[in-house]
Every structure is written in C-alpha cells, then in structure tokens.
Amino acid sequence: MIPTRFFLPIALGLLTITGAVRAESRIGFVNSQRVMNEAPQAAKAKKRIEKDFEKRDQDLQKIAKQLKEMQEALEKGGTTMAESDRRTKEREFGDLNRDFQRKQREFREDLSQRQNEETAAIFDRVNKIIKQIADAEKYDIIFQEAVYASPRIDITDKVIKALIEAPAK
Fold first, then answer.
1. Which of 136, 165, 105, 166 shows the shortest CA–CA distance to 28?
2. Contact 8, 123 (CB under 8 A)
3. C-alpha dihedral over 132, 133, 138, 139, to 10 degrees?
C-alpha cells in the first residue's frame, strides 16, 4: 500500500499543470440549433424544399380529399347500393387508399432524405466557418454540444454573422 503522503504532491502537481493548460487554452462554444434557426442558408434551403415538394404535397391532398369523399359516399349509400356495386366501390376505395399510403410513405422518405442532405450541406459550411474562426482567433477547441456554456465562450453570433456575410456558393 502506498502512503497518502505520496499522493498529495502528485495531486498538487496535476492541478498546477491542469491550471496552466487551462490558462493558456482558448475554448469556444457554438449553439448549433440557433445557427440552424438563424442562418440564411437554412431559410433558403427550407424554401427550396417546400417549392420542390409542393406539387407532390398538393397531389397527396387531392387524393386524401378523394378518399374522404369516397368513404362518405360508401357510408351514405352503401346500404342502398347493389351488392356488386358496393363491392366494386369498396375495392376502388381500397386500391386508392393503398396507392395513397404508398405515395405518402415515399413522400415522407424523400422529404426526410432531402432535409438531411440540405442540413448536412449547411453544417459542412458551418463547420468550415467555425474552423476559420478557430484558426483566426487561436481557439484550442470549440464545442457544438454542451449541457451548459458560459456566454463568455459562446461564439454563435460570430458564426451566424459569417454565414450572413459569406453565403454558401
């Protein structure tokens, strides 16, 4: 067993080294969520996505309306219809409903993929700007995720300003 008296000098030495490193280190923090909310590139990407997916969304809304009308017609007139007509209408409803669900699923998958691609492109640009700021201002480390970050080390405003001044190419 090692006597406690040996640990004290080691612990004090480590604290001194840690304190010296901390005094010389420059730490920064970027709030990624705020960057995504305030970056002009994110707003432009959102508008592009909305424009690109607008027609498909309208088509889905038309099919949904058509399905609702078919269902209401079946509920109202289903009891007075001939059995063969009712089955035909139910089959048409089922076919259209399956087609609608398939198109809706594809729409969500395509939209999600596109949003991920746009977000990745924006974060690539953000990371380059963060690297430029880190190099220019001699930061040792910049965090993008933290439970808490002091406003003193928050460089989010600098990143957003750089994004506004130098939009993506």
1. 136
2. no
3. -110
- pLDDT by 10-residue block (mean), the chain, 169 residues: 48 46 81 93 94 97 95 83 87 95 97 96 94 96 93 95 77
Domain boundaries, the chain: 25-165
Burial class of residue 12 (count of CB atoms within 10 Å of its CB; 0-12, 13-18, 19+): exposed
Q: 114: buried, middle or exposed (CB in 10 Å: 19+, 13-18, 0-12)?
A: middle
What dihedral angle (degrees, nearest 10) is formed by the CA atoms of 74, 78, 81, 83? 100
Rg (CA), the chain: 29
Give the separation between CA 19 and CA 158, rounded to whole angstroms.
28
Residues 110 and 104: beta-carbon distance below 8 Å: no
What is the CB neighbour count within 10 angstroms for residue 159?
Answer: 26
DSSP 154: B
| CATH-assigned architecture of domain 25-165 | 2-Layer Sandwich (3.30)
Can you say whether residue 138 is alpha, beta or left, with left for phi > 0 and alpha for psi between -120 and 50 degrees?
left
- What predicted TM-score, i.e. pTM, was given to this entire model? 0.71
Rounded CA gap, 59 and 100, in Å? 10
Number of C-beta neighbours around residue 125 at 10 A: 18
